[in-house]
Specification:
metal-binding; ATP binding; globular; alpha/beta; Rossmann fold
Length: 203
């Protein structure tokens, strides 16, 4: 099964959630498009502690820390979805991490969410609590559903707001897979703790 990790905003915690999901399912991990010198694949590799998961290289890796379409433009590259091919052994679960939110552009015609469509992935949506997050979360859910994709559930990352979370879950009808607290430090111990929680709620 392919699971596509996306979020309602940039820096919402997709890489952390991807690491937790990879650890919980002993899955493989892949970020097809990376912008910026620091690789999220390296972060995930450092945060998991199992011997089963494989970490695959990006199809596109840009040094410019910007939206993929702009980073590609700066580096005189055009992102071609036909050249992004799923890697490795398809017998294992694969966690695919997106870039930014669902409508972050990849080129003149495609968005990040088109990768989830191409690889027939079930969506894991990361949401944060801030002023406007209900709107951003519900709009993201509507766009995902409009494209015919299945959403496994929501992960709330950061400080709790029960009123916001309850409204989102009630209105969307989605399941809360996990709630991640504002941790002082993110390390293997923290990832493993949440991986156990996620595994226990996974169906």
């Amino acid at each position: 099964m392919n699971y596509f990790v996306t979020a309602i905003n940039t820096d919402s915690g997709k890489t952390l959630v991807s690491a937790i999901l990879t650890q919980a399912l002993q899955a493989d991990y892949w970020k097809p498009i990376q912008s910026g010198v620091e690789r999220d694949a390296d972060k995930v590799r450092d945060l998991i502690n199992n011997n089963h998961s494989l970490i695959f290289n990006e199809s596109y890796w840009f040094q410019t820390p910007a939206s993929p379409h702009y980073a590609a433009e700066v580096e005189n590259v055009t992102i071609d979805l036909d050249k992004i091919l799923i890697p490795g052994n398809k017998g294992n679960n694969l966690v695919i991490e997106g870039a930014g939110g669902v409508l972050v552009p990849l080129n003149d015609t495609h968005f990040v969410i088109d990768l989830a469509v191409k690889f027939n992935s079930e969506i894991i949506l990361v949401s944060n609590n801030y002023l406007g997050s209900i709107n951003h979360t519900l709009l993201t859910i509507n766009e995902i559903k409009r494209r015919g994709l299945s959403i496994k559930g929501i992960v709330f990352n950061g400080p709790r707001n029960e009123s916001t979370e309850d409204f989102i879950l009630k209105y969307s009808g989605l399941k809360c897979l996990l709630r991640i607290n504002q941790e002082k430090e993110i390390d293997q111990f923290v990832v493993n703790k949440y991986a156990i929680e996620l595994f226990n709620t996974w169906e």
